[in-house]
Amino acid sequence: MAETGGTETGGAERPDTTGSNGTGEPPATSPAHGTRRAFLGGAAAVAGTVALAGTAAQQAAAAPRPARPPGGTARAGRTVAVLGGGVAGLTAAHELAERGFRVTVYERKALGGKARSMDVPGSARGGRRPLPGEHGFRFFPGWYRNLPDTLRRIPFPGNAEGCHDNLVDSREVMITRMDGREALRVPFATIGTPLPVLTPDALARALKGFFDTLTGLPGEEIAHFVGRLLVWFTSCERRRLEQWERVPWWEFTHAARMSRDYQRLLCVGITRNIVATKAEVASTRTVGTYSEAFVHNFLRLGADGELDRVLDAPTNEAWIDPWVSHLRSLGVEFRVGHAVSELRLADGRIAAAVVRTQDGARRTVGADHFVQAMPVEHARTTWNAELRAADPQLARCDRLRTDWMTGIQFYLTEPLPLVRGHVDHVDTPWSVTSISQAQFWPGREFRRDYGDGTVTECLSAIASEWDKPGILYGKTAKQCTREEVVREVWAQLKAGLNTGGRTVLSDAKLHSWFLDPAVSLGGGHPENDEQLLIHPVGTWFDRPTARTRIPNLFLAGDYVATDVDLATMEGANASARLAVNALLDAAGSDAERCAVTSLYRAPELEAARWDDEVRFSLGLPNLFDV
């Protein structure tokens, strides 16, 4: 890695000379943390529906899928600084290292980013490991295709397909209500029968049957919602981009004139609980794309696996630590505790990145190429006026918005055989989702392996709404202290689960809790250092591409434009592959380009979409838009 020195006002600045085990870097086996994101294998998630074919540029970038990307050869001396060590950064490092590049990853916190798991401080006793905490539970829907390919290429002892073999299937989903109604459990075995022919009529019948089982809504409301989904499924790409990107999901689904159950189950549930954005403002293109992917998955079309999958151990044990170890074996070096503060431009290229270390020192980092794989809210603080002038898409990123979607883990002293899958607490004011994790970790036993020997379960919950009053204190989550947030979420969980005279959750079972330390509450200035990109109408037009106008700067992250559209681990992985392909072009490398697998597109509906292209050109609505 080429590195340059220099000075900067306000502190000494020196070249980065630390080795791969430099200051602030944890050992390969240390825990990292987990990302977001999203949840629900089926329930409200399937309730939207859409598929988004990739843009022409993305499709052109996608190469035929190799069994394993070959190393290829890169011109000697080519170095890459990957700025950010989350899913996007580690993916970029993986692809580049396999192709013979010298890669150094700079990460301000911990490798794995929001996708890591982390130790609960002071929780270990008697030789056991600390309790596992996380930013939020991980889940891997079957429509993910690029990330599973990466998982297969991370060796794991005893696994034929590497870390991919650490994915286990969820079997069902539960929807709870706070009005005393019994929770609804839907086994995935009862849904997802493949259709012989995917015609609009056959699709409508399948969706009606699914939503009738899932929601229990009146038949006319189910039929109306399915009709809206048919509009999306048969809309041409131009209509999706030019019309539906500008229409909120709430308006598209006609939610305002429907029942509260329709609104909560089919509109709010999929946007706030799953996508962490408000149905009233969320882009129909984004929600539709995400939902269509789930529908195809539940129909067993173009999927890597089952509808809802989770890891069989805490994230770092099952994925992140083996990944980091593998990257080290490929020659990747890591600088943890190095926060990027500025990118410097000279002669039209990035000359250096300025990083601040944990001890407050500033260093300049040089390289032939820079892959910036930081979350957008942090990346844009490093772009000065000169960079923004060099590439206007950087300036447009200022309009991208983020929101809070943060996890809390409740450690219980008794098992919680609730449901073999995720739970959508659909009526909760803070849009809570949860999963009981210990049941999916067959090789771990909480009492034996974690904590003080009394914990048997980790109930991991995510709160996606932080700006509405709760049921205990009448305050928003951002107005609460950390302890009040935990008590409030616990109360909302109990309100939906303790129905019909049963006590599923009780205070006596609660051993302790862990709230993501990225959240700072109290004192009137709430802060969240790890937020999530959201997708109000028009967001797509401000999303940057992986290739920039600066010839040695490439962008990777869940905010970068891919056909996934939604901020997910899959989107982060796909964007990193696009960034690497652009870098390979710039470097003149003869290495094989990364495969970039687009979302499944049902060929049976192409005729309907072609018809809609003609109707859109004539100013007519979609055929099903009645």
Automatic annotation (TrEMBL):
Residues 1-37 are annotated as: Disordered. This is FAD-dependent oxidoreductase. Pfam families: Amino_oxidase. Residues 1-10 have a biased composition (Low complexity). InterPro entries: Amino_oxidase, FAD/NAD-bd_sf, TAT_signal, Zeta_carotene_desat/Oxidored. Residues 87-584 form the Amine oxidase domain.
